[in-house]
Specification:
Blueprint (H helix, E strand, L loop, with lengths): L4 E4 L1 H9 L6 E4 L2 E2 L2 E2 L8 E7 L6 H13 L3 E7 L5 H7 L5 E6 L3 E6 L2 H11 L10
Parallel strand pairs: 1-2, 1-7, 2-6, 5-6
Antiparallel strand pairs: 3-4, 7-8
Length: 135
């Protein structure tokens, strides 16, 4: 059984909530296929952060780590794009957490956090280019 559910994406989060499954952490940007898509999640603190498309900001990674370490149910509302934030969710999720994210025009993907998945994600992240973001 999974300890916690982490959802990344507006549509998949909406479907989970509609089925009565409230994610521990929801990461949304309020848009689906760049169309405005607003999603309110009860019983969760909403935190607004900026993360540009094609980027993973260090500040966002640190906030995801803090939320997952502090064990406080939250929603991150991203100004920009949330797609790549599956990566820090895997890195900082607890073993046996499950991450559910949307695959456009296909459906949803469920990914169980494990040491092997963390290794794969860290390997992928090591290939990223690190640059200073504009404030």
């Amino acid at each position: 059984m999974f300890k916690r559910i982490i959802s990344v994406g507006d549509v998949v989060t909406s479907y989970l909530v509609k089925e009565g499954i409230i994610p521990f952490l929801s990461i949304i940007d309020g848009k689906t296929k760049r169309q405005v898509y607003v999603n309110n999640i009860a019983d969760s603190k909403t935190i607004h952060l900026r993360n540009e498309p094609g980027v993973i900001r260090l500040s966002v990674m640190e906030r995801i780590r803090k939320i997952l370490d502090d064990n406080k149910k939250s929603t991150l509302l991203i100004d920009g794009e949330e797609d790549l934030l599956v990566i820090p969710a895997v890195m900082y999720g607890h073993i046996d957490d499950v991450i559910v994210y949307g695959q456009p025009n296909v459906g949803a993907v469920g990914l169980e956090v494990s040491d092997i998945m963390r290794w794969r994600v860290k390997d992928l992240l090591s290939k990223f280019i690190v640059k200073k973001c504009n404030e």
